[in-house]
Write a structure and sequence with these properties.
- It is a single chain.
- With 119 residues, the protein is an all-alpha fold.
- The chain has one domain.
- The protein is 79% helix and 0% strand.
- It has helices at 3-26, 29-35, 38-60, 66-89, 98-113.
- Helix 3 runs antiparallel to helix 4.
- The longest helix is centred in the N-terminal third of the chain and has 24 residues, at 3-26.
């Protein structure tokens, strides 16, 4: 994947984070309250949005650090995705999958910390 496509995908992640945040706050408010999962939804949105910004920043840089970018893509998809689904279904077993996404997010940050600048 080239930097331009990665920036577009990153922008989509940002767009979807804002859209899902608004949808949870308005369209799903009563469902999330009934299931007691509003906090899970908010956590999913927070991590989704923060990492969407990180995705875009990584994609905008030269050199484009693909490994960290992909770790964040996988992390957001698994971490936030599992929390979104758990929040609307009440399927608590998804909580066992969420940490896999969290580890992927941590790996992304470690890869950024270990990056060596090319001169």
């Amino acid at each position: 994947m080239n930097g331009l496509m990665a920036r577009r995908v990153s922008a989509f992640f940002g767009f979807s984070a804002v859209a899902l945040g608004a949808f949870g706050a308005h369209g799903l408010k009563s469902l999330l309250a009934d299931l007691g999962t509003a906090a899970n939804w908010q956590t999913a949105v927070l991590y989704h949005l923060v990492h969407a910004i990180a995705l875009w920043a990584i994609a905008a840089r030269e050199p484009f650090l693909r490994s960290a970018w992909w770790a964040f893509v996988i992390g957001v998809t698994v971490f936030s995705g599992s929390l979104y689904i758990l929040s609307v279904t009440g399927a608590r077993w998804l909580g066992a999958i969420t940490p896999i996404g969290g580890v992927s997010l941590l790996v992304g940050w470690v890869l950024l910390a270990m990056e060596r600048r090319r001169s």
